[in-house]
Amino acid sequence: MASKREPSPSMRMRKISLVICEGETEVCYINLLKTWYKSPIRIVSHIEGTKITPSLVEKRTKELKISQWDKVHTFLMYDMDVQAINEKLLKCKAEMLLSNPCFEIWLLLHAKDQKAAIETDALIKELKKSAPVWKNYSKSAFTDTQKAFLNDNTYLAVVRAKGLKEFQNPSTGIYRLIELLKENNK
Mean pLDDT across the stretch 126-144? Predict the structure, then answer.
C-alpha cells in the first residue's frame, strides 16, 4: 500500500501580485491583465488613493498571505503628478509602477514613442490624437477595440517604456508588471 506524502512547500506556494493603485482606470487595466495572463499569479487590486502609507502597504500584503509559503509581490501603481503622494510612495516597501505624469503615458506608449516632457492635460489630448482607437477615450473604461489595441501593442509599449528614465517626465514602470506576468505565464 502506497503511503501518502505531504506535498512539498513549493507545491503549495501561491504566487500573488498585489497592485495597490489610486484610481478606477488602473483597476480596469489590472482587470484586463487578469484576462490576458492566465498564470498562477493572482492579481488583487486595492484603490487606496492618497491614504497610502508604509503600514497600509504592509497590512494589505499580510492580508493576502494564507500560508507561510505564499509569495506576495506588492506593486504601487500611481501617477507622479501629485508631489505629496510621491513622498509617501517612496517610503513604502513595494515595487514602484509609477507613471509620470499619469497612467495615460502607458496607454500612449502603445501608440507612439513619447520622449518629451508633457503635462497631464496635453498627454490626454495627445493620446486621443495618437490613434483612431483613442479618439473617444474616457477614464475608467476601455472599449473592446481599445483592449485589442493594447494587447496587440504591449510589446512596443514595454520597449518604449524601458527607453525612458525612471521617475522622469515622461516615464512609467508598468512594464515591470507585464514582464513578471509574462515570465510566470511560460
Answer: 95
Cell 517610503 belongs to: 91
Question: Rounded CA gap, 90 and 88, in Å?
Answer: 6
| Burial per residue of 97-125, b for 16 or more beta-carbon CB atoms within 10 angstroms, e otherwise | bbbbbbbbbbbbbbbeebeeebeeeebbe
**Measured CA angle at 104 (ends 103, 109), to 5 deg:** 110
Looking at residue 77, the DSSP 8-state letter turns out to be E
CA nearest to 58, candidates 25, 26, 11, 91: 91
The length of the chain in residues reads 186
Q: Report residue 186's pLDDT band, with 50, 70 and 90 as the boundaries.
A: low
pTM of the model: 0.87
